[in-house]
Amino acid sequence: MLKGAITATITPFKNGKINYSKMEELIEFQINNNIDGIVVCGTTGESSTLTDQEKKKLIKFTVDKVNNRIPVIAGTGSNDTKKSVYLSKYAEDIGADYLLLVSPYYNKTSKQGIIKHYEHIADNTSIPSIIYNVPGRTGLNIDADTTIELSEHPNIIGIKEASGNIPQAIKIINEAADDFLVFSGNDDIIVPMLSIGSHGVISVLSNILPKETHDICYYYEKGETEKAKSLQLHLSDLISKLFIEVNPIPVKEAMNLLGFDVGNPRLPLVNMSKKNIDLLYLSLKDIFGF
């Protein structure tokens, strides 16, 4: 069963193009530090500025380099259902293990539209789908009742719940299909979400601290809740700084400060302000001791 800490990977750029040699380094860094899975072409990977050809190449590259060592989750969601089916079928064909499907953004839709959107993708692919609810970005919350209904589809196996709405997550966990997986989409509430029965986190933090993010989930699962809580609290300031500007601007800046050399974000995202870089640096210094 998919569980634990899963990294929503950044996409490294060099001279405006995807830096595949750096991506390989990042994949190995994640696997060598006990991460439980990788998302490629998600929000943190700047999927909205990747062309379809770039997405396809990057998903295949990641699947090939991971080589079945951990699960690969391909971000193939779109506000165009037909396009999402196209990318999802490609991800399935080249060996991705799961799909991560963001809710339709900008055009948005009704509850019935959400259900038909996800069911259509799931009906036209064979690998399992994970719903991605992030209303702060999409302008559309997938409410608990909608998620519960979708959980009955045999090919929709979980949700990345990034609304920050714990009562909503509780209702899903209580009433969804028994084998339905719920992952926190927020690093600041990993332990609170685990305490109500979530299966882990799809994380931004783990781009720089994969072992520690894994350990939060691992300790909690093993009943060492004080260790999990202490680690969550220890990292709380850094987590807040990783969202001081829109994701993934701060985490890419953090990686560059730590020597990963992952390049700049693509427009319309820009580099962090000097003021916020200074705040981020101080938080990194507290954790890494440089």
Secondary structure tally: strands: 10
Task: Tell me what the CATH architecture is.
Answer: Alpha-Beta Barrel
Roughly how many Å is the radius of gyration? 18 Å
Mean pLDDT: 97
Beta content comes to: 5-15%
Poorly predicted spans:
none
Most strands sheet: 8 strands, parallel, barrel
Structurally, the number of domains stands at: 1
The number of helical runs is 13
Provide the CATH top-level class: Alpha Beta
Q: How are helices and strands ordered from N to C?
A: EEEHEHEHEHEHHEHEHEHHHHH
Give the terminus-to-terminus CA distance: 38 Å
- Shape category: globular
Helix content: 40-55%
The CATH topology: TIM Barrel
Q: Give the strand line-up of the largest sheet.
A: 1-4-5-6-7-8-9-10
CATH superfamily: Aldolase class I
Offer a quick outline of the entry.
With about 290 residues, this protein is α/β, with parallel strands linked by helices. It has helices at about 20-30, 50-65, 80-95, 110-125, 135-140, 145-150, 165-175, 190-195, 210-220, 225-235, 235-240, 250-255, 275-290, and strands at about 5-10, 15, 15-20, 35-40, 70-75, 100, 130-135, 155-160, 180-185, 200-205. It is built from 13 helices and ten strands.
What do these coordinates show?
With 290 residues, the protein is α/β, with parallel strands linked by helices. It has one domain: Aldolase class I (TIM Barrel, Alpha-Beta Barrel). Helices cover 46% and strands 14% of the residues. Strands 1-4-5-6-7-8-9-10 form an eight-stranded parallel β-barrel, surrounded by six helices. Strands 2-3 form a two-stranded antiparallel ribbon. Helix 4 links the parallel strand 6 and strand 7. It is globular. The relative contact order is 0.13.
